[in-house]
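Input chain follows. Return structure tokens only.
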Amino acid sequence: MRTIELSKESRQGPCECCATFTRTVWGYVLEDGAARAAYFARWSEGHPEHGATFLFSVGNWGEGASPSDRVAVALSCRIDGGRPGFMVVDASSAPWRDEFLGEKLSREQVVGTSLADDVFAMVDQVLSEDNRVLKFSVH
């Protein structure tokens, strides 16, 4: 059974052009109570037209695990017709640079794989269970 565990969030800013903030939220995707992935989502509260960036660090998050046990997959999100749409992008272009996230995969390494299917299922779960993310996706 897959569930979401909410973690922290932050706001950065204000933006010089509009005085609003950039918001980041994060949490974990759990499978049978164990962390299968950490996720991060970032968007500008004042610029919904810029979309949001998501990053999923998928793999072993258990005690004793290392970054080599995980891979990082990034998604770009845009709202079109009132609904979020996602596209895999190069994880190296995402704002998170931390090594603990694992190897940052390129779009080509992810598209068409079972990992892509898994990450899209995870983002669906995040959208249905993390109300903080909904604050972006309903604008």
